[in-house]
Specification:
230 residues, alpha/beta, 2 domains, six-stranded mixed sheet
């Protein structure tokens, strides 16, 4: 844990040491009346390039794990905002990446996929047809919507015998950070929201579950493998 900051400074120390070494060698050569040897500078350049490449690969290897933990923490913060509106939030145990949640409240049961995307281009997500999303005006991706649909189906299967007639598990996709969602085809088959829209969306839905039904589903989820996210 404490070695990471020191590792970040190591390339700078090596570069500084190399520059001092090069300066010393150049001074010695000039003092001795010798011309500068291009082979020496080539060897120095190769060594610096090799070391820099090794350091880059070593320092970037653990970052996905750090990024995943930061994303999971951020996702928890976003979905837990809906607690104040009377919703219960559970992590979906079938999601190995930890970005799947189950939200239960008066307006129903939701399978929520929380996604984080960093792409070049505009900070706009276009909701196109056939479950396709266009991120930043460049990248087409249908996986978030399909993952939310698959999660909803799996949760619905797990809640058999608990769900009352007419109740369904609704898929949702939520994008972290400052994405703006451009909905061009009216009501989405699977709603795609920015993180700031989630609580407002849930509050704006019509109540379809009584308090006793919410409590029954929540009790089942607590007894199953689902873990409360807070």
């Amino acid at each position: 844990m404490h070695s990471l900051p020191r590792e970040r400074f190591q390339p700078y120390l090596v570069v500084a040491f190399t520059l001092w070494l090069v300066g010393a060698v150049e001074l010695v050569q000039l003092t001795g009346g010798q011309g500068l040897n291009p082979k020496f500078w080539m060897v120095v350049a190769i060594l610096i390039t090799f070391y820099s490449g090794v350091r880059v690969f070593r320092l970037t290897s653990p970052r996905p794990n750090v990024a995943a933990r930061m994303k999971r923490t951020r996702a928890n913060e976003v979905v837990n905002r809906v607690h104040s509106s009377g919703f219960a939030v559970y992590q979906d145990p079938s999601e190995t990446k930890g970005d799947g949640y189950v939200i239960v409240g008066p307006s129903g049961i939701y399978a929520v996929e929380v996604k984080e995307r960093n792409v070049f281009g505009s900070r706009i997500i276009e909701v196109a047809g056939d479950d396709k999303l266009v991120l930043g005006g460049r990248i087409a991706d249908s996986r978030p919507v399909r993952q939310a649909q698959a999660a909803a189906l799996k949760i619905r299967e797990g809640l058999k015998g608990v769900l009352h007639k007419g109740l369904v598990v609704k898929p949702l996709v939520v994008f972290l950070n400052d994405w703006r969602i451009n909905r061009t085809q009216g009501e989405d088959h699977v709603p795609v929201l920015s993180e700031n829209e989630l609580a407002q969306y849930l509050d704006g839905q019509e109540s379809v579950m009584s308090e006793s039904e919410v409590a029954e589903v929540s009790t089942f989820l607590n007894q199953a493998a689902f873990a409360p996210s807070c």
